Every structure is written in structure tokens, then in C-alpha cells.
Amino acid sequence: MSFTIATSIEDALAALAAGARPVAGGSDLVVGARHGKAPLPDSIVAIDRLSELSTITLTDDGLRIGALATHAAMMLDATIVASYSALADASALVGSPATRNVGTLGGNVMNASPAMDTGAPLLVFGAMVELRSTSGTRSVSLPDLWVGPGSTSAAADELCIALVLAKRPARSGSAYVRLEYRRAMEIAVVGAAASVTLNDDGTAGHVAVALTAVAPTIVAVGGLDAALIGRPVDEDTLAAVARAAAEQSAPISDLRASDSYRRHCVGVMARRAVEAAGRRAGGEAIAIPVNRAYGIGASR
Amino acid sequence: MTPTTQPRFVRADGPDKVTGSGRYTADLTLTGMLAAKFRYADVSHARITKLDTTAALAIPGVFAVLTAADVPDVHFGPFVADRTLFARDVVRFEGEVVAAVAAITPEVAQRAADAIVVEYEALPVITDIEDALGAGSPLVHTGWSDYGAADPVVRDRNDASFSSITKGDVDAGLAEADHIVESRYVADGCHAAPIEPRAVLAQWEGDKVTIWTSTQVPFDARAGVCETLELPANRVRIIVAHLGGGFGGKCGFHYEAHVAALAKATKRPVRLLFSRREEFLAPDRRREGMVIDITTGVRNDGTITARKAWIAIDNGAYTADAGFFPQLAAMHVAGPYKIPNVHVDAHLVYTNHQPSGSVRAPTAPQTCWALESHTDEVAAAVGMDPVAFRRLNAVDTGAVGPSGQTYGEIGVQQCIEEATKLVGYGQTLPDDEAIGVAIGWWPSFAVPSGAYLKLDGDGSGQIITGAQECGTGAVMTLRQLAADELGMDPENFELVYQDTSVAPYDMGATGSQTLFNNGRAVVAAAGQVAEQLRKLAAEFLEAAPGDIVLADGHAHVAGSPSSTVSIAELAGIAAGGELLIGHGSGAPPAAPPLAGSSCVGDLGMASFVAPQFSCHAVRVRLDRDTGVVRVLEVGAAHDSGTIINELGALGQVEGGVMMGVGQALTEGTQYDDQGRQRNAGLLEYKLQTCADTPVIRTHFVQINTPDAGPRGAKGLAEAPNVATAAAISNALAKLVGKPVRRLPMTAERVWEAMQS
Fold this sequence. Notes:
The structure holds two protein chains of two kinds.
Chain A: E1 2-5, H1 9-17, E2 21-23, H2 29-34, E3 43-46, E4 56-59, E5 62-66, H3 71-76, H4 78-83, H5 85-93, H6 97-102, H7 105-111, H8 119-124, E6 128-133, E7 136-141, H9 142-145, E8 146-148, E9 151-152, E10 159-166, E11 172-179, E12 190-198, E13 204-212, E14 219-220, H10 225-228, H11 235-248, H12 259-281, H13 290-294
Parallel strand pairs in A: 1-3, 2-3
Antiparallel strand pairs in A: 4-5, 5-10, 6-7, 6-10, 8-9, 11-12, 12-13, 13-14
Helix pairs in contact in A: 11-12
Chain B: H1 14-19, E1 34-40, E2 46-52, H2 54-57, E3 62-66, E4 90-91, E5 97-103, H3 106-115, E6 117-122, H4 129-133, E7 159-167, H5 170-175, E8 179-187, E9 190-191, E10 199-205, E11 208-213, H6 218-229, E12 236-239, H7 256-266, E13 270-273, H8 276-281, E14 286-287, E15 290-298, E16 304-316, H9 325-334, E17 341-350, H10 364-381, H11 386-393, H12 412-422, E18 433-444, E19 451-455, E20 461-465, H13 474-486, E21 493-497, H14 514-541, E22 548-551, E23 554-557, E24 560-566, H15 567-575, E25 580-584, E26 597-600, E27 609-622, E28 629-639, H16 646-665, E29 695-700, H17 724-736, E30 742-743, H18 747-755
Parallel strand pairs in B: 1-13, 8-30, 11-12, 16-17, 20-21, 28-29
Antiparallel strand pairs in B: 1-5, 2-4, 2-6, 3-5, 7-17, 7-26, 8-15, 9-14, 10-11, 10-13, 15-16, 18-27, 19-20, 19-25, 22-23, 23-24, 27-28
Helix pairs in contact in B: 6-7, 9-10, 10-17, 13-14, 14-15, 16-17
């Protein structure tokens, strides 16, 4: 077994090329090994000291979030809170303060769990993943990256460097809500993220919805445009969102919930996400995370 | 005796635990120490056809592999001797220990445990408690009529212990009723889930063994080692480091003898550390699943005429301490109500599940949940407000209870009054909120207990007690009792405790009994030292011993405060002569008599010594779209007699309420069809967290209870865990329109109830 600490991205890439697996916060790798999910890899390279990977930068093209940005950093980052609120909502719900301070966005994305909270927000923002290896850098969309539970299309020697999120249009809002049975140390039973951009007349101009824990990967809800574009975000459109989300989900039954309950609830989460995103797009301040503001477990 | 002026007394072990300097069993290491691992059955019911340890023993670094063949052939168990240290011929639940390994590291020990060859012939797996009672059911223990058992235990096929309570004529009572309400409620099993998984470390010196273990009951653990390894009590010493929670899960004798046997075989110290998964699967201390059928007859004026009930309790594969559960459950389904005609049958049923055992207020939260949910249904049948209905029917001072016990002064009516006031019962609420109310009761356990107390030459004191601290703070309160008896400050006393070779017997942190019984012992021991001090002071001050008052660290003559001497000075004098040493026990109060009732399988629980009463009123919010419930506010009123340590008492109530919220909403064991646990971990077995904690308002109804413990104190550790789930259920039923008849009332179950 070998364990090395990378002091530069080049170090890390060289280690990966030699067969090492990267570890940042270790909140998936180490916990998974302890629970017998998968043994620790024989060769590990620690990338947690690569501070250049933990920056969150707003550029003319959009927001660039380093792979090592922690959930704690993202839930408090002013730009994310204001303009990419769904990602802040999701980051604030992850695990516990300890998890949020070690867990990273890059680790989340590359772990490819269909239950990850940050995945659905990234999907509605159309985020691109920057992957780098000793042979170069490429940019991949999330639907192309995630191929199944715990499985990605990235090559073993590719390191996730950053997530790049497109610039947000004016009058846009987003939200992430999840079904949870308790308020900390929880994992999403189901969840939904929504991004809404309003037209000048207050009707919906663009709506994107993505779902958590109802399919082998985080999935986008398709075909919403016909039901929503040019219409107000009201009871009818929200009902259409709920229906579409439930219909397009393919949940399993497990210890946390049955498939039928998940299917029902993901519709509820989707309508709440769109409602909150629409209200935020209209300028309303709803505190992070929406789960608490809505009191999921409370009113709709 | 001057009551202390420190009503918010801070526990002495707090700084140790908060700063991390406190040592738990898992923190202890000894030179040359080996690691222990168990090989478990992994199947729920099977005959062992082959057990071969050769390959395991051949692994370098393995020092010993033990099976049933290596220990005395002893069956044990407090009510039914149905258990052996290692499986013999047949395994009856997945967590049964088949073999134990000691090796140089935990990893090597685990590899060796995995390398043991065990082959089985499958036997029918019995998981359904109602089916198990059927005439055609296969048996969990085929030859168990030959096992030893306590005299009153009624045994019949898979019925491991049967109890009934009969009073009056239940059929005649039902015939007098204007309405008859029948309900069925089903509770899943759940867990104590202490945050510290258990740990045991054993070391032999000659023919004596010292065992450090995370137990709530050191003397019980010692008795188990002595019985199974055939040793006299004076050669086994049990020491407990700080205990990281127990909640009943660490009551009973568990793995101390396995580790002692490994240490003996290897001639090395051996330590066993449980993983979280093992903590869920192996110990015989799961909270029992139950099926509860209740029928109540009621007159139009709201008077209950009769109650009939049938209860089946999942015993699991072995009886552990659950023998008395049927009688306790029978008392809880009758409840603290004035009912003239009662008939309850309660069965403890063998299955191939993990064995059940005393988890905080065994049988009570589930049975109270069923009874009190049913009580709201009965109140609705006669169109009465549920609180008014309880006020009318609940027992009161001087009333006769369902088992024929006449109560002395009790405070259940005051509890109803105070709890409902705490949450503003009757206020107008948003339409997704409601308040539910439930009452509960719990006995105090009167048992023998002992303590020593000494003052050294500098005037500082030590209390040497057999009592065990499991997180409740009850042991800490002993300092306060001693200090008050001697007119000293609690800070003058250090506790020496949790060591069976140093202190006299105590039953341990179980049955809410520490303060009730060990408090009595400490007061008696302190009383002896007080007598010695008065005699010394009388000589010193030239007065009569009867005129000496002990207060503020001094002895003075009554009526002349200037005639005074410090207790420290008297202790210095004593150090040169007759030493200041007291010992105490005191006789536990006897159980009150019963009249007009009969009990089959009577294990002494139909009569409640110094009964404790409670009422919880809970405001909840329901997300009607998802069935998710949030508990917003809890009003908890408790009659636990005199409150000696208010801070400790509040902690008990708040902890008990939160445990109740978990049982109500999220904590339940899920099984596969082979009787194996599916959610044996903290991700899928959902404990409540700090973030889920509601506002908890507590009121103590302090009345003068007959047969109580020191200063009129009753128990308090279990009572706050009794009525919370029931009150949540009643709030929820108002929002859903009917009760959710399955515990835990998970979001999905609530949602399902709303659909049907």
C-alpha cells in the first residue's frame, strides 16, 4: 500500500497515471471502506493540500468552483448563495458540520452517487466538469460523466479539477429541496433541484428540474417547456411539474422508502423546488436551505 | 439534615467527558494485549453439522480459538436458563456467538474468525410472533422444558413466559358498556443504540481475573462470569471505566466470560471492541416488537366499564431478562386507570430474532402508545375531549388501580393539568398542527443496595458505592445526599464506584433504581459517620451528642452557634483514634398488597412500589404531502416524587423525550424474511439528532409519596420514555383523521394512512 501527498496538480496527475486513486475529504472513500463497500485502494494520493483547487471564482463565463471546494465553503459563498442558491441549499443539507467541512464538490461529483445532494443543482445549472490527466484537459457534461451508481466515464488517470457553471441570466432563481426523515446526518430519500428564469411579464422563460435518488444517476426532467414556458408559476404549472417528475422517475424500493412513496414524493419535491426557485427569481429572499424555510415536514 | 442550597448540582464526571480526558473501556490498553473477534451464526436457525477451527488456528498471530467445547457446559439466563456462552448444536439467531478468537491484531483475529469452517443444516426460521404461538409452529427450543427456570414462569411451546391479570368480570363489564372499542396496534422492535459500542478487557493474575467492561450492571456481569466459568465471586473483579451510554442496552451479562476465557487460554490480556454493526446485531438487549389488541367498554358518561387485552411480545431466540415483560406489558395495557373489570393475557414468544431485553422502560413506550392511542379512540366514541376523558378515568390518590392496588398519594391528575398547561392545550393552531396528550406510569424498583462512606484526616470524604453511572448522573447525586446528611459540601466528596471488588452490591444502572436504593444506602452510611461526628463534637464542645448540629462544614451546639468546631478538625482527631467509617444498606420497601385480582405467571410486577406518573402533551406539525412529522413542542409533567438534583432530573426528562420521539417516528428494526436485521447501522437506523429536538418544557409534580426513596424521591430514568410516542400518536391522529397503527409511525406509514 502506498500513500503520497501531492504538493502540485502535476504531482497528483503523475500519481494517478501510475495507478493511484485520489482522496480529498475522504468522506466517501474512507467511510465506504469502513462499511465494507469497497476496500481502500492499494495506492492513494492525497490531494487535499492543493489549495489552488479549492477556489471559487466568478469570471465572465460564469462560476468556476474548484474540485476541492467544501460544502461548508459553498453554503456560505456569497455568489453561490445569491446566484446559484440551489447549490448552497444542497451544500447546507449534507451530513453534519464535520462532513461539510471535509467533503468536497469534486469528490461528490466523481463518487457519482444518485443520492448526492449537490448533483441535481449542478445539473440544472448545466455544469461542465473539467477533467485533467498527464495527457491534457477536457470538459465533460454531467450527463456524459455519470453512467451509473458510483460509476463515471472518466478515465482512471483523470482528476476532477473544477466544475464550471454558466453565467446566470437576470431574473433567475434556483432551489434544492429533499425529503428527509431527520434534520442532520441525513441522506436524501429523494430530492429535486430547479432553476427558473422569469420573463419580464413574470411568466416562466426557462425552467430546468433535476431529481435525486430516483434513478441510477441524477436525472433531468424533460419536456417541461410545453407545460411551463410563457405561463405563470402557479398551481397548474406546479402540478404539471410534479406529474412530470413522478412519471419520469424510476425509483427503487429500499430501506429508506418504497418505490411508490419515492415516486410520489419526488413530485412533491420537484414542485416545491420550482416554486421556491420561481419566488427567488422574482426577488424574494428565502433563506438557505429551502428545506428549513419550507420546513419540509411542514407546509408546502 | 439541611437540604443542599445547590439545586442545579453539576456532575463530577462532566469535565472529564467534555474535555476528552475521560477514559472509556476502549481507551484502556495492557502490555501484551490481544484482540478478540467473534464468529457469529449469520443464519437465524440451523443445526451445526461441522465446526472446524484448524485453519483459523494455523494463521500466524492467532493465539486461541474457543468454541462451546472449551468452556463449562452451563446453561444460564435470569428467568429461563436457555442460553450458553457459545452455540451448542443449534444456532437460533444471526448474532449468536459460535466461536471466539484472540490474535495479535483485530485484523488477524477477524481473518481467523472468517477462516473457521461452520456448516449448517437449515431449520425453519420463526419470525412472526402470532404464527409462533400457533399449535403447528415449529419450536425455537425443542427441549426447553428441561431448562431450569424461575418458579412462576409459565412455559408452553414457543410461549416463553405467560402472564395474565384478571379483576372483576370482564364480560359482564363489557355487557354494561354503551360503546365497545376494539383496536390493534403493532410495534416494531428497536434499539438502545448507545453511542459507545461495548468493549471488554480481561486479565488474569493467578486464579483471579479482572474484567474492565462497558456494562450498566457490574454485579450482574460478575454473576454471569462466575456462573458460566464456574468461579467464586471473590475471584472475579469487574471494573467499569466511563460508560458511553447504555439506555438498558448494556444491562445484563454479555461477553465478559468470553473474553475472560480467551485471556485464560492465551495467558495474555485480551480486549474485545464491538463495531457499530455488532452492537446492533449481537447483544440480547433489543427493544421488543409487540402486537397489542385492546377492547374497552365505556358508558355514555365516559366511564370505563371493562378492558380486555391480548399481547404478544417478541422474545427473540433467548429469554434474557424479558421473563417479566408480559406482566409489565399487561400493567401498561391496563394503564393508570380506574377500571373495575380487567382481563389481560400477555405472551412472551420465542422467535429466531435477536433476543429482547430491558431497554429503557421495557414494554412501556410501545404499550403506552397502543393504549393511549386507543384511549383517544374510546374518548371519541363517547364524544369526549381526550383530556377530560383521562381526568375522569385516570387513577388518583386513594383509588384502586387495574391490578387491585390502592394508591397512596399520587400525582397523575396534577401531571395532566400541568402538561396540558405547558403547551397551551386547547389553543387555536394552524391546520397542519395538533396537540396530543398521553399519560403513563412506571414502578420504582425496591431492591437491596449498599455503600460505604469515610472521612479522612483532612476532612475530605469518599463514598464507596456499588452503584453504576450510565450517563444519568444519579451516582453524582449521591454526593449531595451524603453532604446534606453531614452538613458538608458535595464538593468535599469523591466517588469510588464501578468496581465490584471494592464496593458492596448494587443492582446497577437499571430499573431507575440508583438513587432510590443506593441513595438509601448512602444516607444510612453517612448517618453512621454523622453519629460518630456528633459524639466527637459533643466531647470537644462539652455538650450532649443529641444537641450537636452538623451544618456548613461545622458541628455546633444547638442554640449556641458560637460553640462550634469544624468537621475537618474533628476528622483530624478521629484520624488518631477511632476512624470515621460508615456502611449502609437499609431495607427496601415491600411491594404494596393487591386485592380482588389474580395473576398467572406473577413475577412481581402487578404491584407498583412508589409508582411514578407522567403526562406528556406534544404539539406536532404534519407535512400532508409527504407524511413527514415534526415534533415542535413537548410539555412533560412528571410525578417522580421529590426532585433532589434538578439539573440531572431535567436531563433525564429531555433525554427520555428525545428517545421517545425517535421511537415514535424513525427508529425501527427492519428484518429480511430470514429474520436478519437489514438496518444494523446508524445511517439506516435513524436516531434523532440535536437538530430535531423540539422545545421541551418540564414540570415536576412533587408530592409526599409513601414507600419512596431518600427524601421522597422515586425513580426517574425510565418514566420520561413512556408517554412521548403515545402523545405524538394522538396529535398525529387528529391531523390524519385516524391513528397510525404501526410503530414507528414513519413518514411513509403516515402517508399510507392518509391514502387509505
